[in-house]
Design goal:
This protein folds into two domains: 365 residues, Outer membrane efflux proteins (OEP); 85 residues, Outer membrane efflux proteins (OEP), CATH 2.20.200. The protein contains eleven helices and six strands. A hairpin with a 2-residue loop joins strand 2 and strand 3. The longest helix has 68 residues. The chain is elongated, with a radius of gyration of 40 Å.
Amino acid sequence: MKKNHRKIILAVGLAFIEIWGCKTPEGAADIRRNNLPEKYAENIQDTLNTANVDWENYFNDPYLIALIDTALLNNQELNILAQEIAVSNNEIKARKGEYLPFLNIGAGGELDKVGKYTRYGVLEKSHEIDSGEEFPEPFSDLFLTANASWEIDIWKKLRNAKKSAVLNYLASIEGKNFMKTKLVAEVANSYYELVALDNQLKNIQQNIQIQQKALSMVKLQKQSAQVNELAVKKFEAELFKNKSKQFLIHQQITETENRINYLLGRYPKPIERFSKPIDSIGSHELTTGIPAQLLENRPDVRKAALELKAAKIDVKVARANFYPSLGINATFGLNAFNAEHILQTPESMIYSLAGDLVSPLINRAAIKSAYRSANAKQIQAIYNYEQTLLNAFVEVYNQWSNIENLQNSYSLQAKQVEKLTESIVISSDLFKSARADYMEVLMTQRDALEAKNELIETKKNQLNAEVNMYQALGGGW
């Protein structure tokens, strides 16, 4: 007994020596938030945050709202993430079951025939259970038992493993929320691109009508010898060029519609959408709030923070593997060689109770490696958290700058389109009175078409920037 006690004391002592030599890096689990600026820029003084507005209230287009709602219900990637959340939830239940007692109920029997001239055969022949009754031959053994085993979680290793599973489960939910923000933004951006393509197609069709009138006028002037055949061919070539562009835009419309349908989890079909000019879509009111709000509003930042907490607990779990584990095993049941006697208690009753204290002594390299890996993953989680937070801040700052610059660009481009539209009428009048060359008319029409398309593109980029800002702030989930 003294030798056994010494072995146990030695095992516990070696375990604590090993733990002392494998300490967690100091400060490794601390989230460094002090580097986050107090505001995005000196001229941004917002206290309200658009991220707190639900996407149903942020977007005011009923067609777009219906598309987003369908995407959130049917998108396959979101459904895949939902199953990953279910897996994480089951992991919690599995971890919880590990620190509760395991109870098994069993029944069985066996039949045994020993040789008459063997050791056990001689013993059975000479031993009587009751007067005049020998061991039955062959000998049957029947039993009904309940077995219980329980690892006492004295170092909270199993409970910490459950806590880590809970945090990973919550992180998977935040991952799904982040996917929602991306999905909402992608549907909205694709929708605005579709509306912009419709506007560009109408713009080209209007320009084609203008060029057809100009071509008719040039043909009449050729008949009166005011221009030559070259002018007619130039106008015809420009007309064919713009007609061919229609088909390219039709293809872009088809691909954009199908991209939206894919996000909605359905096969290709026409997309109902806003039919008025894109410049009649009003801008969204955006307030950035303060950078500290990213910690609560951005699902990817919340996910990284939860994963960091889980990594910290995983280190504790790995560290607890150096400690001795205490287990208890108990058995209770009924056992008899004949079914008639199995319910006769207390004669057929059996029970046992045992405990063991086990500590690793030889195969410690695997435990050390698992512990070091857990530490490395914790440090990795810290860097991932800092990178995610930095990326969130940069995204907001970039989109804020982008919105401001696009607004200034749009106002100047609108003036450019206004002047070029006026110049089309002027160049046509001058051409009629032979005071302008036909090339001036063609270049004016071409410049006006390009400027209108660029204005539409800039408006689309404005709407996309507002959507991206909404996502960057953490809105949409």
